[in-house]
Write a structure and sequence with these properties.
A: mainly beta, 50% strand, B: 113 residues, mainly beta, four-stranded antiparallel beta sheet
């Protein structure tokens, strides 16, 4: 079945540091890939998505590129802020299959 | 802009008690979902619905029941609460699948003691 593996946290960074969260996936076909973010005390919200190979999703300074050859969808941000402190989830969805989530990576950005 | 609304936000149950977690959405989404979130485990799908009158099991349905009598509402029922059901529960909805984004409620934190 489909599955998502993302790097374990927690990750602690200083403001303006570069952030990378690795995500790899296993799927039988051609899935859509997502990053969701969960701020403290809230539900998840979509951060970005990509629906086919080589697509780049971007939002709020975050980027992720759908790499079919390496089955990866790594999340990056060049300069993080304290407000980026959250839990980040990589997710996969394939036709007729429900969304599969990774375990989540907790990111803390210190001023 | 209410989106997905869940109630209650917190609840403590004794073993064997029952309760219903409420979920309503005002976006006219056909698809609705219930997830549970456990530390380090990501989200696990409990039940989902593709429209009023239709429900189906997810990965971890045991101990839960759902109904979908209207497009807006998707309550989750726990009949005999067990400590293993201590978790944070999220309701979500989407317009369609598979590439439509999910809209989540703010969650219900349930403790069973």
């Amino acid at each position: 079945g489909n599955s998502v593996t993302q790097m374990e946290g927690p990750v602690t960074l200083s403001e303006e540091a570069f952030l990378t969260i690795n995500c790899t996936y296993t799927a039988t076909g051609y899935p859509s890939l997502f990053w969701y973010v969960q701020y403290p005390g809230e539900g998840l919200q979509l951060l970005l998505k990509a629906t086919k190979a080589d697509d780049k999703g971007s939002n709020k300074g975050f980027e992720a590129t759908y790499r079919k050859e390496t089955t990866s969808f790594h999340l990056e941000k060049g300069s993080v802020q304290v407000s980026d402190s959250a839990v980040y989830f990589c997710a996969l969805s394939e036709l007729l299959e429900k969304l599969s989530f990774g375990a989540g990576t907790t990111v803390t950005v210190r001023a | 802009n209410a989106g997905v609304t869940q109630t209650p936000k917190f609840r403590i149950l004794k073993i064997g008690q029952s309760m219903t977690l409420q979920c309503t959405q005002d976006m006219n989404h056909n698809y609705m979902y219930w997830y549970r979130q456990d530390p380090g485990m990501g989200l696990k799908l409990i039940y989902y619905s593709v429209g009023a009158g239709i429900t189906d099991k997810g990965e971890v349905p045991n101990g839960y029941n759902v109904s979908r009598s209207t497009t807006e509402d998707f309550p989750l029922r726990l009949e005999l609460a067990a400590p293993s059901q201590t978790s944070v529960y999220f309701c979500a909805s989407s317009y369609s699948e598979p590439s439509s984004p999910l809209h989540f409620g703010n969650g219900t934190r349930l403790t069973v003691t």
